[in-house]
TrEMBL record:
InterPro entries: FHA_dom, SMAD_FHA_dom_sf
Residue ranges, annotated region (Disordered): 32-51
Top-level taxon of the source organism: Bacteria
Name of this chain's protein: FHA domain-containing protein
Organism, as annotated: Methylotuvimicrobium alcaliphilum (strain DSM 19304 / NCIMB 14124 / VKM B-2133 / 20Z)
Organism lineage: Bacteria, Pseudomonadati, Pseudomonadota, Gammaproteobacteria, Methylococcales
Domain FHA, residue spans: 96-150
Amino acid sequence: MPMVRCPADEHYYDPELYDECPYCRKTHYVTQQPAQPTGSKADRQTQRVNPETAKTRVIFGDKGESFEGVEPVVGWLVVLNGKARGSDRRIIPGMNRIGRDRDMTITLDVGDDTISRKEHGFIVYDPLNHQFFIQHGSGQNLTYLNGAVVMGAQPLNDRDRIRVGNTELLFIALCDRTFNWA
């Protein structure tokens, strides 16, 4: 049976393994007509999986090819306060410009006018050394790391707290020396 898209239209999953979307817990609907399975259910060895312990399967397209031009995520910023509380922003390799404008790498248009429009700060991921850094940008308002003002580039560690304007962010690292996309 083909993978299906959940009602929230955000996730794909295998309906033979799950009765509902294991991510948002909504009952599935089929986005394409499923092929009729051959053989008995026992022959296909179909089994239900506990969504809490299941591993995610990566889908690379209809023919198994990888997508080109995709910037892999290396970490996230999670908004901890305000109207956007709980939302996240992806961090990609290289220099990530933070600001309210849509042309910033990390757009923080979260209703906080104390965040500079352009380059309030930068988060850098160095893919050769698998390290993160934070630095102040050209914005007038300050950037804080764990309560201390950021003036030059400083190392950024998993679970560090960042404040831009009146918005507090939690930094979550995906890539490090134990896992990276290299």
